[in-house]
Specification:
This protein is 31% helix and 21% strand. It is of the alpha/beta class.
Length: 428
């Protein structure tokens, strides 16, 4: 050990790549354990900006072995587009490992995702339309296609036939779409086999051996706590476990191998897609956070919904994940706000809730109870020590720490890779 789990503490887009960068050269492996290409990391390296969707952000760190583990669903076309894009910019992608047990996103998954979402009308979830949900549904229904199936054409064909036997009825008779031919899917997938062969392996065994050698492994969650299929704002969630428990089932390591759990939380709150969001802003301050924070999705380009910091959500994330350290990002975005509101509890029909209500209806109707803290006007981007921050910024961080359920060990003060103030070591 150590095995370190990194998750988002809100609804995603918190800047998890910032925490990965902070660990930097101390990492030997970076593992993506859930989700697919429905989320993204934007990483700035010097003058270069990289947008990653399916690949772990550790692929940009020299010497690190990036792993796509069994809990991920893989769109192979997107995989090779990303790999080729990075390679053309001089990034070494040769060390990538992919679990033989990872499930594959096919053309019919993408088609079903899009037509189903349109069919829902006003009840839309707000999916990215990239086939993530249908692929996970096939996994649970035991009709999914795994990476290892591509290396046995007979097995692959049988599985595609079984899947399309049902799905074509749905596409044609319910959604008025054309049927998808078995050969069309099989031929496309077989076309990737030669390029995939060197990458696909028993990643659970490799990670176990790496931890046994004392190497440092970072398990990087896609999406975030409030989008976890079990613990998030269901049904407005992703289709996988984005919390620290997902690192265990999504990679094949044992629970007692996890040494640290780092959760990334913004100094305010954002979310993409539908669903409850108590602190959401619809005024000029929402526009301020959107513009100053460049709050547009890395994967979709959609404008993110913005709101003030929500302390009950941070405490909830701390409990669910067993957070040992928070990384607070985008503190610099708040510069110039005279008084900064923070949600400390909720009002639900006159009743105060200090924690996230278990009832979806209660959370949907929750109104934030705010406390305000003095802001600052100074530029934070050059700060590298806590003492470099203005006094009011320091006080804001300490107030958030006191109400969020775990210590704040690092603070993001700008988009650059090194724009970090570190308070505590993330790996002892």
């Amino acid at each position: 050990m150590p095995a370190v789990v990194l998750v988002g503490a809100q609804w995603g887009d918190e800047g998890k790549g910032k925490a990965t960068d902070l660990l930097g050269s101390r990492l030997d492996y970076v593992v993506k354990f859930n989700g697919g290409n429905n989320a993204g990391h934007t990483v700035v390296v010097g003058e270069e900006k990289y947008a990653l969707h399916l690949l772990p952000s550790g692929i940009l760190t020299p010497g690190v072995t990036p792993v796509i583990a069994n809990g991920v669903v893989v769109d192979i076309e997107v995989l090779f587009e990303e790999l080729e894009g990075l390679a053309s910019r001089g990034v070494d992608v040769s060390k990538l490992r992919i679990s033989a047990n990872a499930h594959v996103i096919t053309q019919y998954h993408r088609t079903l995702d899009k037509v189903t979402e349109r069919f829902l009308g006003k009840r839309q979830i707000g999916t990215t339309g990239r086939g993530i949900g249908p692929s996970y549904a096939d996994k649970i229904n035991r009709v999914g296609i795994r990476m290892q199936d591509l290396f046995d054409e007979n097995i692959l064909r049988q599985k595609v036939e079984g899947a399309l036997d049902q799905k074509n009825h749905l596409l044609v008779k319910v959604y008025n779409r054309r049927a998808i031919a078995v050969d069309e899917i099989v031929d496309e997938l077989l076309g990737y086999v030669d390029r995939l062969r060197p990458m696909v392996t028993d990643t659970a065994l490799e990670l176990h051996q790496a931890l046994g050698r004392g190497e440092t492994v970072l398990f990087e969650g896609g999406q975030a706590t409030m989008l976890d299929v079990d613990h998030g704002t269901y049904p407005f969630v992703t289709s996988s476990n984005a919390t620290s428990g997902g690192a265990v089932t999504g990679s094949g390591i044992a629970p007692n191998q996890i040494d640290r759990v780092i959760a990334v939380v913004k100094a305010y709150t954002t979310r993409v897609g539908a669903g409850p969001f108590p602190t959401e802003l619809f005024d000029e301050w929402g526009d301020f956070l959107t513009e100053n924070g460049h709050e547009f999705g890395t994967t979709t380009g959609r404008r993110r919904r913005t709101g003030w910091y929500d302390a009950p959500i941070a405490r909830y994330a701390a409990r669910i994940n067993g957070v040992t350290d928070f990384v607070l990002t985008k503190l610099d975005v708040l510069t110039g706000i005279e008084r900064i509101p923070v949600c400390v509890a909720y009002d639900v029909d006159g009743e105060r809730f200090d924690e996230v209500p278990v009832s979806q209806s209660d959370f949907h109707h929750a109104k934030p109870i705010y406390e305000e803290f003095p802001g600052w006007t100074e530029d934070l981007s050059g700060a590298r020590e806590f003492a470099d921050l203005p006094a009011n910024a320091q006080a804001y961080v300490r107030e958030l720490e006191a109400m969020s359920g775990s210590r704040i060990s690092a603070i993001g003060v700008g988009p650059e890779r090194d724009a970090i103030v570190q308070l505590h070591e993330l790996i002892d």
